[in-house]
Specification:
Elements lengths: L2 H20 L6 H11 L6 H22 L1 H4 L9 H8 L2 H31 L3 H22 L14 H16 L5 H11 L4 H27 L5 H28 L6 H22 L1
Amino acid sequence: MDISAIIEYLKATLFGVVEGITEWLPISSTGHMILLNEFIPLKVSTEFWNMFEVVIQLGAILAVVVIFWKQIWPFTLNNGSGSTGIKKLVKTDILSLWGKILVACIPAAIVGLLLNDFLENYLYNYVVVAIALIVFGVAFIVVENWNKDRTPKVNNLNDLTYKLVIIIGLFQLLAAVFPGVSRSGATIVGALLIGVSRTVAAEFTFFLAIPVMAGASLLKLVKFGFNFTSQELIILVIGFVVAFLVSIVVIKFLLKYIKRHDFKVFGWYRIVLGVAVLLYFALAVH
């Protein structure tokens, strides 16, 4: 194995770590991946990079499935007969939750299917990312200050109505359009604004990611094809596995963190990072 291949595998590991951290913290995984690729680019084709970026997110999504399996799997192995047996075999509350998840995904799915190539060509750059980081960083701080003395109206996933999840889905749309907004950040801000508790907002955000990223990954794989070189396949596997393992740790950390803290620290981080990026590239141009 030559040294250049080892370097690319180390880069893939770094991308997996960054993806695993930023996919769940409300600081924009797409934004961080674009910025990281500006400084430490993988030596791969543009088509493979676009596919790699989405597919390693699938590794992060797998972590949600593993951690929340009992809360998202609607079927049971209990035996029974008649309508009672059906109720025992199917957990209706979880099926209802999935209905709400899918409804919330509709706005972003439509925009993603119709405008994906346009958005990637014209908005996936450091200027848009930096501005989105700053704007939504400010939004986090403002919303948290406004929300500080309010009592959440929704403290359980089962209390989410279709009206509420549609509103959350519209906030998710912002992340689908503007890289740097953060899918989790947008949905959490939207949920907090309509009276959802931080814990429920975070968990629903985790679940929303499953169909969104699974669908996006499938589309990218179909578009790119399955003709990988051996080095590309290794890069893909490394990024996927590392993102999965790091996500396990980060999700568990975030669930504990939000029980005692708000999200303002992530708002300040976004602002500082966005300003630093704009300054760096402004100075680099000159």
